[in-house]
């Protein structure tokens, strides 16, 4: 299985934060987690020890998802300021990275995203992650997280680090590969769908899972949009790589989701799309170009803005 909500933590960060009870925003799938853990067995074995101040921040982070959306932006900014005030350390980077993942689960205001990016920039400046001798194929997750905030959430960062520059270049390369990607998958009713055969339509390709809270939260909005803009040629497809198809079907039926749910065995399509955390959504315009993409859960308003980039008229 793949990952959940965008926000992937690097092996050590994922292990340490999950140990504290703070789940990543873009949650990593069991397979992604296993890979991360294997890549940093030493880090995983050495559970971080948090100071009282760090533990207090972790406790605050645990409450973010239960905070009303109208208050969550301000609370996120406040937590970012608390993390920024900590002395530079790996723990500070862990907390900044964890907050980064939680900060994109909706629309809580641009300022809170900028505050989170500033804090992650500071943490990486104080505690840069040195690449291994053979230089891993992709930079450490915090660099990719910051690069995604800059590219897709339109914040700024003053980080001067070759790994950050490499992360930004990799995102551009990923986008090129996504535009070339194609798939033929079957939905829960047995109907076959091929992406390349949907030219002339605006297509939303959404990656999700039943076990992913942010994924579940945005599905009613996807269903509403699929119905509202069907006459304009909008097609919404959600892909799940879960092995238990009956569980997926039961969830969809019980929540009255009516747009197509496709089955992606072994996450093959997700890999083609470089999906490292879910929910993740790509919007293709009528010519098959990627018009917009999300790095996390989106609100209906955010989805509408993305669809307008592909030519959908509200």
Automatic annotation (TrEMBL):
<dbReference type="InterPro" id="IPR000866">
    <property type="entry name" value="AhpC/TSA"/>
</dbReference>
<dbReference type="InterPro" id="IPR017937">
    <property type="entry name" value="Thioredoxin_CS"/>
</dbReference>
<feature type="domain" description="Thioredoxin">
    <location>
        <begin position="174"/>
        <end position="312"/>
    </location>
</feature>
<feature type="signal peptide">
    <location>
        <begin position="1"/>
        <end position="24"/>
    </location>
</feature>
<protein>
    <submittedName>
        <fullName>Peroxiredoxin</fullName>
    </submittedName>
</protein>
<dbReference type="GO" id="GO:0016209">
    <property type="term" value="F:antioxidant activity"/>
</dbReference>
<keyword id="KW-0732">Signal</keyword>
<dbReference type="GO" id="GO:0016491">
    <property type="term" value="F:oxidoreductase activity"/>
</dbReference>
<dbReference type="InterPro" id="IPR013766">
    <property type="entry name" value="Thioredoxin_domain"/>
</dbReference>
<dbReference type="InterPro" id="IPR036249">
    <property type="entry name" value="Thioredoxin-like_sf"/>
</dbReference>
<dbReference type="Pfam" id="PF00578">
    <property type="entry name" value="AhpC-TSA"/>
</dbReference>
<dbReference type="InterPro" id="IPR050553">
    <property type="entry name" value="Thioredoxin_ResA/DsbE_sf"/>
</dbReference>
<keyword id="KW-0676">Redox-active center</keyword>
């Amino acid at each position: 299985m793949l990952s959940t909500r965008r926000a992937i933590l690097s092996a050590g960060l994922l292990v340490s934060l999950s140990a504290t009870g703070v789940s990543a925003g873009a949650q990593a799938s069991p397979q992604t987690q296993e890979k991360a853990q294997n890549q940093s067995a030493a880090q995983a074995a050495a559970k971080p020890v948090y100071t009282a101040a760090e533990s207090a921040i972790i406790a605050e982070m645990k409450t973010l998802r239960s905070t009303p959306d109208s208050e969550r932006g301000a609370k996120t900014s406040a937590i970012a300021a608390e993390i920024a005030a900590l002395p530079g350390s790996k723990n500070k980077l862990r907390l900044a990275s964890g907050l980064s993942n939680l900060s994109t689960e909706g629309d809580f205001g641009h300022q809170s995203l900028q505050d989170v990016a500033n804090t992650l920039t500071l943490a990486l400046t104080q505690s840069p992650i040195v690449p291994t001798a053979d230089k891993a194929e992709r930079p450490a997750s915090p660099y990719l997280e910051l690069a995604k905030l800059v590219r897709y959430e339109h914040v700024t960062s003053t980080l001067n680090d070759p790994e950050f520059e490499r992360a930004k270049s990799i995102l551009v390369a990923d986008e090129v590969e996504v535009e070339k990607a194609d798939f033929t998958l079957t939905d829960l009713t047995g109907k076959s769908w091929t992406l390349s055969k949907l030219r002339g339509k605006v297509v939303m390709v959404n990656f999700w899972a039943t076990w992913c809270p942010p994924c579940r939260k945005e599905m009613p909005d996807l269903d509403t949009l699929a119905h509202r803009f069907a006459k304009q040629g909008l097609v919404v497809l959600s892909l799940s790589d879960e092995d238990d198809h009956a569980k997926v079907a039961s969830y969809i039926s019980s929540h009255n989701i009516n747009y197509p749910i496709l089955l992606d065995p072994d996450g093959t399509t997700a890999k083609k799309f470089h999906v490292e955390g879910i929910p993740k959504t790509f919007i293709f315009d009528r010519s098959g170009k990627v018009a917009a993409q999300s790095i996390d859960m989106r609100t209906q308003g955010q989805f509408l803005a993305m669809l307008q980039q592909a030519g959908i008229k509200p």
